[in-house]
Amino acid sequence: MNVTIFDPYKKPFINAPEEDEETHNKLVKLMEEGDKIPFLPYTTTYDQVAEHMKQVRSFDLSMVDRADFIICYLDPEVPTFGTMEELSWACRCKKPTFIVVEGGKKKTPFWVMGMFPHKYIYNSFKEVEDVLLDINTGKVKISSDRWRLFEPHLR
To answer: How far apart are CA 109 and CA 67, in angstroms?
Structure first.
């Protein structure tokens, strides 16, 4: 299968904002400083965090727009608000979405169960890989009622 993977932590864009551990720690420190006045052009450290995260959000949602399908990893123990917005956007765009939940399908957040049919929620990446291979070979048909798929000759 010839698939290009977009990793939100390794954005494929020119001038993409950093989202590494060092940047995360810097943002945490800025939030702790609160209303401190940093350097120009920011009024407060909150402004600095907001500006960075607006860029992250824009680039990440752009990757969802460009993707033919989404594979999402969810850890219910880790609050990932960006991931939830990306899933919501993928759902609204009718993108084929395959969700792997840490701890298995039984740990899926209830809200996600209301967003996607549970047949698209998996216990492991291996399960997703197997399904994608079956779709790729034509063994399994993906629902064109749920997803907005291009004609086969345009894929």
So the answer is: 24
Which of the two residues, 90 and 7, has the higher pLDDT score? 90
Domain residue spans of the chain: 20-66, 69-149
CA distances from 22 to 12, 28, 41, 54 (A): 19, 10, 22, 18
Instruction: Region of 92 please: left (phi>0), alpha (psi -120 to 50) or beta.
Output: alpha
Residues 30/49, Cβ–Cβ less than 8 Å: yes
Predicted pLDDT of residue 139: 92
- Summarised one tens digit per residue, pLDDT across range 39-81 is 667 688 888 899 999 999 999 999 999 998 999 999 999 988 9
State the chain's mean pLDDT as an integer.
90
Q: Which two tokens stand for residue 31?
A: 């939030």
User: In terms of DSSP H, where are the helices of 8-144?
Assistant: 21-33, 45-66, 81-92, 110-115, 125-137
* pTM > 0.70: yes
- The CA-based angle 65-14-6, given to 5 degrees, is 40
β-pairing, 70-74 vs 97-101, is parallel
Q: Is 118 in contact with 108 (CB distance < 8 Å)?
A: yes
